Task: inverse folding
C-alpha cells in the first residue's frame, strides 16, 4: 500500500522551500560536521559566532539570576509574550536607541522576531511578490555579493534583482566593492531595497554616504530601505571602520542578538515605522503565536543600562578584530605568488577571497577543501538576482575566522595549498 506522503505532490510553496537552497547546504555542512564527531573538520564555512569568554560570563550570571528569582523564572519559561515581543525588552531597547542616537522612536516602532532570519522572511514577502494590482515586485540588492540566507526567502521565483558592484583595487592585494550608482536603475519592479552592513559574505561596510544615497533613492521611489545590521551598529558593532547608525521612518533597521553571542536564543529586532511593526507583529501572531522571550530576558539588563554598547566596543569587536588581523596576515603569507585578492576586511567575521581566472570553479575548490576536512562557502551562492552570469561569481570563496585560532591557521594553509594546486 502506498501512502499519500510517499508520492507527495508538493505545492509551489513546498517546492520553493525544499529545492537545494544554499543556506540549507551550508547549515547541513555545519550540522553534519558537528554531528559526526566534527573534531576533524575545520569549520570555516558557517557564520557561527565565536565563544567570547567576557560576554559569556555576563550572560551566565544573568541566567543564574533568572533561574533563581521565582518571578523572573516564571516569566522566562511560562508566559506567551505579545506578538510584538517581550514588552519590557521592547521598551528598554526603544529607550536606548532614543537616548544614544536620538532616533525618534517609541516601543510602537520595534518588534521582535524569532531570529532576524525570520524577520527577513516576513519583510521580504511583505514588500515583494505578486501584488493585488496585478504587478509583481522584487527585493533589490544594490550590491551583489550579498547574504546567502536571503536567496531562498521568497515565496515565488524571480524574487530578487541585484547589481554588480564597482570594484576599487587597493594596495597589498586588497580590493573593495562599492554600490555602482551609475548603473543602479531602480524601476517599478522594486518593492524594497536591502543591504547587509557589514556585508555577509565580504566584510564590506557600505560608507555613510552610500547609505545616505540609498536612503534618498528609496524615498524617491516610495519604497523602504532595509538595513541588515546583524553584525553592525549599534550592536554587536563588529565594524573595523566607521559607520554611523541611521534610522528614519523610511528605513527598516534589522538587528540580532546572534552575533553578540546568543545565536541559540533566536532573537531578531526590527525597528521601523509603526505601520510596518503592526504588520510584522500580525504575521508573528499567525506564524508563531508569539516570539520567544529567552533572548529578550537574557539581554534585558545590558540593553537597559546601555552596557550592550560598551560590551560590543570593548569585548566583541576586539575579539573578532584580532582574529581577522591574524587570519588576513596568514593568508597574505600563504597565498604569496598567486594572483589572489582579498576584500578589505572592514567588519563581520569573514574574509572574502577572489581568485581571478582560477582554472576550477569556486564550487570545485569548496569540494576539494571539504575532502581535506576544511569547510568554506563557495562564492557562487552569494549572487541572487543577477541578470547575467558573471565570471567573478565562480572565482570567490568566503572564509569564516571566528573559530579556534590554531585551526583557522591550519585551514588557511590547506586552502592556500589547494589554490596553488588549482592554479598550477
Ligand atoms: N543577516 C546576516 C547578514 C547574517 O549573516 C545572518 C546570520 O548569519 C542573519 C541575518 C540571520 O541571523 P539570525 O537569524 O541568527 O538573527
Result:
Amino acid at each position: 500500500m502506498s501512502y499519500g506522503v510517499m508520492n507527495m505532490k508538493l505545492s509551489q510553496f513546498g517546492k520553493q522551500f525544499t529545492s537545494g537552497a544554499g543556506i540549507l547546504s551550508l547549515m547541513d555542512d555545519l550540522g553534519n560536521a558537528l554531528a559526526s564527531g566534527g573534531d576533524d573538520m575545520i569549520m570555516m564555512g558557517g557564520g557561527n559566532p565565536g565563544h567570547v569568554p567576557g560576554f559569556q560570563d555576563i550572560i551566565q550570571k544573568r541566567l543564574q539570576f533568572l533561574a533563581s528569582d521565582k518571578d523572573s523564572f516564571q516569566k522566562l519559561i511560562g508566559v506567551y509574550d505579545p506578538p510584538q515581543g517581550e514588552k519590557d525588552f521592547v521598551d528598554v531597547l526603544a529607550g536606548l536607541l532614543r537616548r544614544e542616537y536620538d532616533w525618534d522612536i517609541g516601543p510602537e516602532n520595534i518588534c521582535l522576531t524569532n531570529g532576524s532570519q525570520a524577520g527577513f522572511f516576513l519583510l521580504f514577502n511583505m514588500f515583494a511578490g505578486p501584488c493585488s494590482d496585478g504587478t509583481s515586485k522584487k527585493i533589490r540588492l544594490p550590491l551583489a555579493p550579498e547574504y546567502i540566507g536571503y536567496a531562498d526567502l521568497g515565496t515565488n521565483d524571480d524574487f530578487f534583482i541585484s547589481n554588480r558592484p564597482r570594484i576599487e583595487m587597493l594596495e597589498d592585494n586588497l580590493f573593495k566593492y562599492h554600490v555602482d550608482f551609475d548603473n543602479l536603475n531602480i524601476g517599478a519592479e522594486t518593492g524594497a531595497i536591502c543591504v547587509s552592513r557589514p556585508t555577509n559574505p565580504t566584510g564590506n561596510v557600505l560608507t555613510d554616504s552610500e547609505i545616505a544615497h540609498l536612503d534618498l533613492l528609496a524615498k524617491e521611489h516610495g519604497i523602504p530601505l532595509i538595513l541588515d545590521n546583524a553584525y553592525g551598529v549599534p550592536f554587536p558593532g563588529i565594524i573595523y571602520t566607521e559607520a554611523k547608525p541611521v534610522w528614519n521612518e523610511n528605513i527598516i533597521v534589522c538587528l540580532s542578538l546572534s552575533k553578540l553571542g546568543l545565536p541559540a536564543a533566536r532573537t531578531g529586532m526590527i525597528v521601523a515605522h509603526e505601520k510596518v511593526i503592526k504588520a510584522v507583529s500580525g504575521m508573528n501572531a499567525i506564524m508563531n503565536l508569539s516570539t520567544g522571550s529567552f533572548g529578550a530576558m537574557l539581554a534585558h539588563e545590558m540593553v537597559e543600562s546601555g552596557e550592550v554598547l560598551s560590551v560590543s566596543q570593548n569585548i566583541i569587536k576586539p575579539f573578532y578584530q584580532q582574529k581577522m588581523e591574524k587570519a588576513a596576515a596568514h593568508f597574505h603569507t600563504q597565498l604569496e605568488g598567486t594572483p589572489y585578492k582579498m576584500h578589505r576586511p572592514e567588519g563581520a567575521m569573514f574574509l572574502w577571497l577572489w581568485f581571478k581566472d582560477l582554472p576550477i570553479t569556486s564550487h570545485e575548490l569548496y569540494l576539494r577543501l571539504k575532502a581535506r576536512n576544511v569547510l568554506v562557502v563557495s562564492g557562487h551562492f552569494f549572487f541572487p538576482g543577477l541578470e547575467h552570469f558573471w565570471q567573478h561569481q565562480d572565482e570567490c570563496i568566503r572564509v569564516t575566522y571566528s573559530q579556534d585560532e590554531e585551526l583557522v591557521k591550519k585551514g588557511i594553509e590547506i586552502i592556500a595549498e589547494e589554490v596553488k594546486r588549482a592554479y598550477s
User: Anything to note?
Assistant: The pocket of pyridoxal-5'-phosphate is lined by residues 47, 115-117, 147, 149, 196, 200, 228, 230, 256, 258, 263, 268 (CB under 6 Å).
